[in-house]
């Protein structure tokens, strides 16, 4: 069982200075560029010359938010908190959920209905969103930031026209790799064509586009998207991951052996996450580490099928499905209890859970596909594996067998994760917002 002491005061100070220094530097540079009208070649989007204020009032719109837990809601939460720390104001329009939501004055909940075949999600009422236009006009928003391509996108474009302000969006999801898992009765090539055409059409309605990785930018460019794109990953709330939030013994709580080797996966239990690959290679790990267990946290439509696969593979007793874990302690406890974090998704636009694992000193074994290529650097807290059972299992076995390697990856991972602090990413987003306002005024 891994034993990780909380970071020392000196280590916390070092990591926070690194992260906050990056954010402060970016914010100051954006302000200087704004005043001097300079363009920085190192950024996908630059500060706006002549911008009238350093404080922005931002309207975000999303088809998904808490209590629904996924990458989009995590990204929104991260950026809202960081933007407010930088002095900006954010209001969010999102669906109302039947249970579990927390009301806040800066979150406008819209009446919604269920989505057929997807019990976790809700569909906002379009007209109810547009009815907010007079109220929103009085608040003098500087721009609209859309996070999802459904009702939120259509309503965001319409509100942008009514309010006369720029509309930007984040392209969070590579839909061509998702649709065939859920619309199985249509040929995959048809679904890919539809997804690409819809993406191009929606992107060309925007003033600018945020993409979480260079790989995603390249994919959209191949689609034919010509809208300005800025590569701005979701940042990590480093402070929440550097100190224990619960005194519970994670292993005891879930009936896991105290000396077992724990492999952890965090994320939605969905087909496109390639969790089945992790289950299929588990016998190769058990051959060398018979006490290994694979812990899967998260819910999703593939959970029942994955449980059946584990039983059919003969590893049913070594695979544990825990459902969603709260991010204010239980999830951190899972990361800290694990000997290694394993990940093999083919469709990640970023892979924020990888940074969470690194920040908590959990060695990572992962493939590097799509957005995870931008996150991971071999040896910097992780070992990058090929998507083959033999190579992936060999790297997991290496991590489990070598305490010195685990310690080295744990330390390097903390430093690597600090470079992705959410304040740093929010400062980049502000720069992109200013550019969109400048371009709207001069077009």
UniProtKB/TrEMBL annotation:
SUPFAM superfamilies: UDP-Glycosyltransferase/glycogen phosphorylase (SSF53756). GO terms for molecular function: glycosyltransferase activity. It comes from the Bacteria. InterPro entries: Glyco_trans_1, Glyco_trans_4-like_N, Glycosyltransferase_grp1. Signal peptide: none annotated. Residues 69-238 form the Glycosyltransferase subfamily 4-like N-terminal domain. Residues 248-414 form the Glycosyl transferase family domain. Gene3D superfamilies: Glycogen Phosphorylase B. This is Glycosyltransferase family 4 protein. The lineage of its organism: Bacteria, Pseudomonadati, Pseudomonadota, Gammaproteobacteria, Oceanospirillales.
């Amino acid at each position: 069982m891994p034993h990780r002491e909380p970071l020392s005061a000196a280590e916390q100070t070092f990591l926070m200075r690194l992260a906050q220094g990056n954010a402060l530097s970016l914010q100051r540079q954006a302000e200087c560029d704004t005043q001097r009208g300079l363009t920085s070649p190192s950024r996908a989007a630059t500060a706006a010359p002549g911008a009238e204020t350093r404080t922005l009032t931002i309207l975000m719109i999303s088809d998904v938010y808490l209590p629904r837990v996924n990458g989009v809601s995590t990204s929104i939460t991260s950026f809202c908190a960081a933007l407010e720390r930088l002095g900006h104001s954010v209001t969010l329009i999102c669906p109302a959920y039947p249970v579990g939501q927390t009301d806040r004055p800066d979150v406008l909940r819209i009446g919604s209905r269920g989505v057929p075949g997807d019990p976790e999600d809700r569909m906002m009422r379009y007209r109810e969103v547009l009815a907010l236009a007079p109220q929103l006009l009085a608040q003098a928003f500087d721009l609209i930031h859309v996070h999802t391509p459904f009702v939120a996108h259509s309503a965001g474009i319409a509100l942008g026209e009514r309010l006369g302000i720029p509309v930007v969006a984040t392209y969070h999801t590579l839909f061509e790799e998702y649709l065939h898992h859920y619309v199985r009765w249509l040929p995959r090539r048809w679904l890919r064509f539809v997804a690409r055409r819809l993406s191009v059409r929606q992107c060309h309605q925007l003033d600018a586009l945020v993409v979480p990785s260079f790989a995603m930018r390249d994919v959209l460019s191949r689609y034919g998207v010509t809208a300005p794109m800025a590569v701005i990953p979701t940042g990590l709330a480093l402070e929440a991951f550097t100190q224990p939030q619960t005194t519970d013994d994670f292993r005891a709580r879930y009936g896991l052996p105290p000396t077992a080797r724990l492999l952890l996966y965090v994320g939605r239990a969905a087909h496109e996450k390639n969790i089945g690959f992790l289950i299929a290679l588990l016998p190769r790990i058990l051959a060398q580490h018979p006490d290994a267990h694979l812990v899967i946290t998260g819910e999703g439509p593939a959970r029942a099928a994955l449980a059946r696969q584990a039983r059919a593979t003969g590893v049913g007793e070594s695979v544990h499905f825990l459902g969603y874990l709260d991010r204010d302690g239980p999830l951190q406890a899972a990361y800290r209890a694990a000997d290694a974090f394993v990940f093999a998704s083919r469709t990640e636009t970023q892979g924020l859970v990888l940074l969470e694992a690194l920040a908590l000193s959990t060695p990572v074994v992962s493939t590097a596909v799509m957005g995870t290529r931008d996150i991971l650097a071999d040896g910097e807290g992780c070992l990058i594996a090929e998507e083959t059972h033999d190579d992936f299992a060999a790297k997991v076995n290496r991590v489990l067998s070598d305490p010195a390697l685990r310690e080295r990856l744990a330390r390097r991972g903390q430093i690597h994760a600090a470079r992705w602090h959410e304040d740093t990413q929010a400062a980049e987003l502000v720069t992109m917002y200013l550019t969109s306002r400048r371009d709207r005024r001069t077009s």
